[in-house]
Each structure stands twice: as structure tokens, then as C-alpha cells.
Amino acid sequence: xxxxxLETNILKREIVNIFKKFGLSSNHASISANALxxxxxxxxxxxxxxxxxxxxxxxxxxxxNPKPKIKIKKISxxxxxxYANNSxxxxxxxxxxxxxxxxxxxxxxxxxxxxxxxxxxxxxxxAEQAVKKNLVTMIYTNAPPAVAPHGALKSLFGTxxxxxxxxxxxKIPFILDTSISMINxxxxxxxxxxxxxxxxxxxxxxxxxxTTDAKKALKGVQLPIAGFRGSGLAWMVxxxxxxxxxxxHAGRVKDPFDDFSGPQNIGHLFITFKTNLFVKNYNTxxxxxxxxxxxxxxxxGIKEIMYPGQNKYKRLKTNSKKKIKILTSxxxxxxxxxx
Length: 339
Known about the structure:
Layout: E1 3-6, H1 8-21, H2 26-41, H3 52-60, E2 71-74, E3 79-83, H4 89-107, E4 109-117, H5 123-131, E5 135-141, E6 162-166, E7 174-178, H6 185-193, E8 203-204, H7 214-219, E9 221-222, H8 228-243, E10 266-274, H9 282-294, H10 310-319, E11 324-327, H11 328-338
Parallel strand pairs: 3-4
Antiparallel strand pairs: 1-11, 2-3, 4-10, 5-6, 5-10, 6-7, 8-9
Helix pairs in contact: 1-2, 2-4, 4-5
């Protein structure tokens, strides 16, 4: 599996130009490119440039609106509802997290629901924006069918990520960003495209048999974390980001790679709030919390007990100093999309 190295700034400029070629404004193209580059830098390749062609295909098929008229309905000083008008998900999510931050700074808490959006990449990318403003955040979004509800033979829930972020009193934020499936669907797609196997115990084929074949997994069922508990969490996210917001739910979110019959109409929910709502010494308390846990006796071979977000922060810092490595197949996509 060959890779090529590209300068980050050059790569971002290419992505911006590609999005502009497909009708996005300069601002929306830049927002989208930044999110894709971030995914590459933190090592979340399944949410990075491997998806660029998909976004462009959906714009071309007119199921993503490159010139959306996004409306923000103010319900109260704290609560807003956004109609995304089938925009690319990055743009809708960028507006939503900024609105949630603004509301929280005014009133202590911000809650923003989004409907008629699309896939927005990594939830943690938006959580980091709130944490940098010294806010705690919870973010939910649903996704196309991939996971079967517990006891069912057919996939219906998405990999439906759950995201939580908080300041830590240090430069490294606590960001838990995890799908409810054993591995995220993006990793399986990358493996399928490059003829790689996936780990055992993460998926079943369409006949319900365990498989390590990525292509068979995409046609089958992904397994949730922790059995029925993971299925329950997926259902919770479907309710919070789909039922509550006005977005699609109960298996109606369209697959962005394979279903061009209409917009995805994904729903997102962003909740942000100040750290000092109940205690004035939150930073002291969170530092004590982390310090106490890190001092616990360690399993053999473990150098440090890490909190969610530490590894990702280290990868971001390290990779930001290097050229970005992308697969030759992804580089070919870039060349085709540019011309």
C-alpha cells in the first residue's frame, strides 16, 4: 500500500480549489478543507481525504447543496435550531458549534439542534472548539445503517458516535470521541478499497457469519461495543440526533457512498456549558481527578494511564510538523477531481 507525502498548505489549497470547482464558496470550501486536513493530522484517515471524492460525487448528483440557505431559528437565549438546507455537513456543524459556544457564553449553556445536514467528519473536531473556550461539551450525530439493534437480523442504527469534551486545566483537552461500533465504518471502507483485512470480531457478513473481509463487512453488519449496551447507546444517539432534531432516524439516513436517491438529512445535537455552573474551582477539581487516576498502579507494559484525547493530541502535534502522507489511490482521486 504505497503512500505519497504532500505539504499541508499545498494540500489544503488543492482541496479548497476542488470544493470551489464543485460550487462551494471560498469560506465553505476552507471550512470543509480544514476539517479534512485535521482528520489526516490526527490519524483518522477514514474521515479524511478518503471521503473527498464522495462529497464531490454527492454535490455533482445534487444531493449536497453547494449553495445552501442555512437558517438559524432562535428558540431562546440558550437554544437554537438550524435548518442546514442539505449543506455539506462541515458547514452546518461549524455554524452549530459556534452558535452553541456563543449561547453558552451568554447564558451558561448552549444547545443547538441541526436538521437537513450531511456527514460532518469527526465530532471531536467540533468538541475541541468548545473546550478551547473553556466549555464542557456533548455532541451527537446519527449515520447510515450499519449496526443491527440487539436481537435483530438487519442493520438499522448507524455507528452513531458519542462525543464528550472538557477542559483539563492543561493544554491537552479531554476529548472522548467514539463510535458505538467496534471500529468505525470509515476504517472498513479504507480497508475495502485497499484490499486489506479487518480485525476479527468487528463485523458479520450478510449471512450473519463472522468475517475479516472488509467488502463483505460493508454488505453485512457491524458489531456494537459491549453487545446490547452498545446497541442501546446507538439507539440513544438516534433519538437525540434524529428524532429530537427533525433529522432522519430509524435507518432512514442514506449511505453517502452508495445512495444518491436524495439528501441524507442527518441530524446533529450540540450541547455546551460553562465549567463554573455549580462549582467555582472546576479546573482544580478536574486536575485532581486526572492526577488521581494517573497515579493508579499500571498493568505490565503500560507506561502511562492516558485520558481520552491525549494520544490524538500527540499525533496532531507530531504530524503537524511533517508532510501529510496519503495513499496513492487518494492522490489519484485528487488529480481527477482537480481536472
